[in-house]
User: Fold these one by one.
Assistant:
Number 1:
Amino acid sequence: MAEHTRSSITIEAKPAAVMGVIADFGRYPEWTGEVKEAEVLATDAAGRAEQVRLLLDAGAIKDDHTLAYTWIGDNEVQWSLVKSQMLRTLDGSYALVALDGGARTEVTYQLTVDVKIPMLGMIKRKAEKVIIDRALAGLKKRVETPAQPDAGDTGEPA
């Protein structure tokens, strides 16, 4: 069984708000840092992404890969690698748990990465930890920061 890395963070928002940001793949380039493009290739009957193409630029690692997503209820999503140029495995999940009667959310991110080039397990785990920590920090900031109106949006009704 492949080793994985896991980390959690508490976000000051309801689980539905957190999952709304996680499920909005088109906006990933705005808050993830490493994702430069995201394109939903297929959706399920509920309109949730089933396959997403991501263009990643994380310095030394640049990759164009496709992930398959499985939604488990309203508070968990899992993904696995469909195709990639550099990766052999990219499996992960976000699991959300409501805290304080639903006012806050604990988000647990689990990730397993395996690259096609040889790499020490210790270095892979460190890379997974960096990816997870950046993703959780970006997610927390995105969810907790009030949305800014579009330029030119006066806030007046049309």
Number 2:
Amino acid sequence: MNILTLSCWSNSIKYHLFSWGGGALLAAGLVKRVGLGGSSISLKVPGRKQNNQDVEFVDHLGAIRLILETLATTRHGVSDEAVKITAVGHRVAHGGETFHHSVLIDCQVLNTIRDLQQLAPLHNAANIAGIEAAIKLLPNIPQVAIFDTTFHVTMPDFAYIYPLPYEWYKKDGIRRYGFHGPSHLYLSRRAAALLGKPADVCNLITIHIDKGVSLCAIRNGISIDTSMGLTPLEGAVMETRSGDIDVSILPYMMQVMNLSAQEMEHILNQKCGIVGITGWNTDRQHFLEAALDGDLRCKLALEIEAYRLKKYIGAYLAVIGPLDAVVFTTGAGEGEWFARELVLEGLECFGILPDNGRNRTVNSERKEILITGDNSPVKVFVIPTNEELVFAEDVTAILSGNYSDHLHYHYSFAGPDFIPLSAVE
């Protein structure tokens, strides 16, 4: 009995196959350029060399069919017994105010996710396509939705309501929702375990850095604020998203450049952030290497990113109170030490005492590492996130009848003896 997890985006699908309960990772991979032509699929089985295959064109249905076929391929996949899929867990970007926890998908749930598509048109549409494809290809298998937004349902109203006409919130759902919830959940539970404290007494700032970037203020184990808002556009500087800006820039530049609302939205989501400053459309590792090598615009972009992350840390310290730890996660690898140094520089007044030697030892081996000195009142950890394990455990708990929500479920990764799966692949 195994669980397939799917993270479906507009032009890619990330997949993982876990044993029941998430105790072992059996396979993982990525389908690229979904719907664009020139597609490809990768498959990594622990203990084997990664396999890559090019294909001409796949939509979401074809991509998921290709995933199932690849997993079952004797030469590159896993064993016949291991590939038997018991359930599928789907990442869904936006749950609105309707969903407060992961749920078993039925017609009503799927229709509600469709209704919420207007709040995240770039994300929920792809999530829906993945759900519909999996239901068609695996019609008798339970499907579970795990929402990016549900970890943040504990935010107080004064943190999530914008200073806009109140009717916009009541009628149209305009409010802060937040994203990357499974990642912030995983990081918070792992940090608590490393601190040797129960999660519900830990005060943390978790920082998820990937193509999207978000921070979460966690007091007594629950989210009380987060940097992303109605959509993933708000907050920190990101790879292609602007993050926080003066909104009056938008109508001004729309007039200057004769842009439609759709064109401006595309620019803000795809042509701003680090790409906008550097003019480079490259991955984060190459960007960090260029900044280290002295490229002026890359260095400027990194300084802007670090400055804004530092400001968020200061703001969240003010609302959390006494802080136990700051947690970074990223998939960029070795060059990330430079970015963290810039963020942490000057935070000694808050009890954050970085150990640059420890920080520079963090590499792509994806281990959990303390990067502050032993005498630092506030600890800083680098912890590889594992959102997919959250998906797998939620699926298992729901189908076993042991799940109510993330606040009352004891995840395996919250335990002191847990060994991160990434460390044993």
